[in-house]
Amino acid sequence: MSECLSYDAPEPVFAEPWHAQVFAVTVALNEAGRFAWSDWAARFSATLKRNGLHRELNGGDDYFGAWLETLEALLVEQGSAALGDVSQLRDKWEEAYLTTPHGQPVRLAGE
Questions:
Q1: 37-52 and 61-78 helices cross at what angle (nearest 10)?
Q2: DSSP class of residue 93?
């Protein structure tokens, strides 16, 4: 008699690849000494609160959108990135995402 084993795969930690990427970039910048995690946490908390006042955050794109918003603001404030550069790069990634066929990796033009 053969037993039927059931295996339930764990839920993914991140709903979308870009969620994991923005998280990893933030952790790497912290580990490189670019900012203190306590400063990051305070800033992110303020962003979540600001965004949550208008609607309930669902922990997906809106949560990581707030994460990205916080990271962009921090990099601009530190002088690590110019506001125009951040906006321009974000627009390029959005265009690449929207024009990439489903299932294909998203890449910026020229990469």
A1: 130
A2: H
